[in-house]
Amino acid sequence: MQWNNLIPLIDNALSSEDNGIKGSLMLVGDPKQSIYRWRGGKAEQFIELSKTQNPFSNKDKLVENLKTNYRSYSEVIDFNNKFFHHLANQFENLDYQKLYKETSIQEENNRKGGYVNLSFISTENEEFYDAEEEDLSYKNKLYLEKTLETIEKCLENGFQLGEIVLLTRAKREGVLLANFLTEKNIQILTSEALMLQNATEVRLLISALRFLNNPNDLESKAMILYFVAKYFQKELPVHDFIVHNLRLTEAETEANFKNLGISISFKTCRTKSLYEVVEILINAFLKEKSNNSYVQYFLDLVLERDAKNKSSVADFIDYWDKIGFEKSIPSPEGTNAIRIMTIHKSKGLEFPVVIYPFAEEDFSRNKSDKIWIDFEESNEFDLPKALVNKNKDVINYGESAQLVFEKVDQEQKFDTINVLYVALTRAKEQLYIISNKIVSKKGVINEKNLSYYFLEYLMSVNKFNDNILEYEFGSSKRISIYKTKESLQQNILNVENKLEFNQIKIAQKEALLWGTAQQEAINYGNTLHEIMALIYSKNDVEVALEKNIENGVITINESKAFRNTIQEIINHPELESFLMERIRF
After folding, report:
1. What phi and psi values does residue 16 have, to the nearest 5 degrees?
2. Contact between residue 423 and residue 351 where contact means Cβ atoms under 8 Å apart
3. Which of 42, 110, 169, 410 is most exposed, with the fewest beta carbons within 10 Å of its own?
4. CATH class of 196-326
5. Do domains 74-193+334-370+392-474 and 196-326 have the same CATH topology?
6. What's the pTM?
7. Are 187 and 336 in contact (CB under 8 A)?
């Protein structure tokens, strides 16, 4: 629909001329990187435009394929060329097949070398693994350990953590990686880690705001007590401290807090503006962490809401619950940490080293997928269409139903390979793929899994060996030279003395900033300027004075002093010529 709305606008631009030059249009895209069908994206639209379709009145059209890959090293390009050319055989749709057989072949640039590593985990010993005791499935444990081994290998080869990215198909895999690497003391950077709601300090502030808004909210009070128990006292276990204070009155809780060095009055907070409340909370609970990036960004968010919407605490909580919780701090530049992101978020980006763990997907798991099919005219249900489960039984509903099933099946396969294409083409120098060797005891590969594509490719190039779990293409030795990036970040200093708002006085007039004598002098000077603005010649003096007396600017008694001053000005030898009768400005 969006494209159809654009067509007449583009056509109008193409049919018009500007200084004799006809309008033109340049469309740039790659259907192989179309991975948003679930959002309404349609790669077929672009494929048709690259063929014969032309919805515009101007029929002059030129299709040009950009053949050279300027991103990756030769080994990465060569692997992807051969791998995706081979995957073209997975399609029955001729357009999809042609797309990967012809346009997936890219020419190399002057970057020679590079490295591709294709490895597999083996779950043969899963029966001896106690999943309940380990709190992690055997397969996931193997993936995580292999990923850590790969990271260590990259570091040994001279790469920095900040040059490595881990790509995952789903967020849950990214969470597993983040938790595992954090336990291993490896610095990571994820979009989830940058979210405000995941910062302990921000969670405290939100809990405190909820408690201020509703004093009966014991869950929020418990969160405040948990933070205090963990960071301000050591006498009681955390749970005991919470139980001891949870049912106390506000006054009693404040008294206990004061003994721990926390000075706060919840009653006073409820009389303040939103921004003032948050500043008070930070000063009370987070004084040593007030320069924390999350705290500062949260404070900016509060200030923005307070300034634009005059939000109350209740308004801000409502905003936070709807969309505010999704806010995150900008990714800090120069941080030497491994980035973890989904393949969809990596689209359009590039990284020196790409590691793609969990490179498997069970195609048969989406049993809930449904499709609309047309019934034959003679069907016994007397229904024109029906929503049915997507499985091979659909072909029994008639020829049209079979066509719909085959079309949807090919689209899903196309989308899966497109996602794989995006993942494998993000690497500049080194690419690591970690998949699962799903082969039966009889040596039959499971075709209903993404790992089939990797195993079947290795067989096609005569590299597969049942006893080998790791395959290398090129040399793992680093070729590029690491360029040290200077961090542009500056540390935010702690504010030791908080500004008290009740001690701020705003003068209503500039004169109030001065002493009495200066105030009189300023008032006299301003009034003299008003009178002089009406004087163009010596003859205007009395008229100007009378007007200011009538308007209440000066009194009759004051007019004598102003008259003497004005006479001194207009009779000054250097100014006299400007006040002659003929002069007007």
Report:
1. -95, 170
2. no
3. 110
4. mainly alpha
5. no
6. 0.68
7. yes
CA distances for 62 relative to 29, 50, 51, 96, angstroms: 14, 9, 10, 21
Query: CATH: 3.40.50, 3.90.1690, 3.30.70, 3.30.420. Which one for 74-193+334-370+392-474?
Result: 3.40.50
Indicate the SS3 state at residue 371: strand
- In this structure, are residues 266 and 249 in contact, taking their beta carbons and an 8 Å threshold? no
Q: 175: which DSSP letter?
A: H
Query: In a 3-state reduction of DSSP, which class is residue 473?
Result: strand
Contacts of 119 (CB under 8 A, 6+ apart): 146, 150, 432, 433, 434, 435, 469, 470, 471
Q: Which two tokens stand for residue 311?
A: 């939000």
d(CA 359, CA 36): 19
Task: Show me where the domains of the chain are located.
Answer: 2-50, 74-193+334-370+392-474, 196-326, 510-579
Q: What is the pLDDT tens value at each position of the chain, 585 positions in all? A: 677 888 888 888 888 877 778 888 888 888 899 888 877 788 888 888 888 888 888 788 888 888 899 999 999 999 999 999 999 999 989 999 999 998 888 999 999 999 999 999 988 766 655 545 455 788 999 999 999 999 999 999 999 999 999 999 988 898 889 888 888 889 888 877 678 888 889 999 999 999 999 999 999 999 999 999 999 998 999 999 999 999 999 999 999 999 999 999 999 999 988 999 999 999 999 887 767 778 888 999 999 888 887 788 999 999 999 999 888 887 666 678 899 999 999 999 999 999 999 999 887 666 557 777 776 655 566 677 777 777 777 777 777 777 888 888 888 899 999 999 999 999 999 999 999 998 777 777 888 889 999 999 999 999 999 889 999 999 999 999 888 766 555 555 555 555 665 666 655 555 455 556 777 788 888 889 988 888 888 888 888 888 888 788 888 888 888 999 988 888 888 887 777 765 454
CA atoms within 13 A on the CB side of 462: 0
C-alpha–C-alpha distance, residues 133 and 130, integer Å: 6
All residues at 6 or more sequence positions from 341 whose CB lies less than 8 Å from its CB, including other chains: 165, 166, 167, 168, 174, 190, 191
Amino acid at 166: L
Phi/psi zone of residue 20: left (φ > 0), alpha (ψ -120 to 50 degrees), beta? left
List the structure tokens of 374: 């047309």
Please give the structure tokens belonging to residue 493. Answer: 């200093």
- Nearest in space to 543 (alpha carbons), one of 520, 566, 521, 517: 566
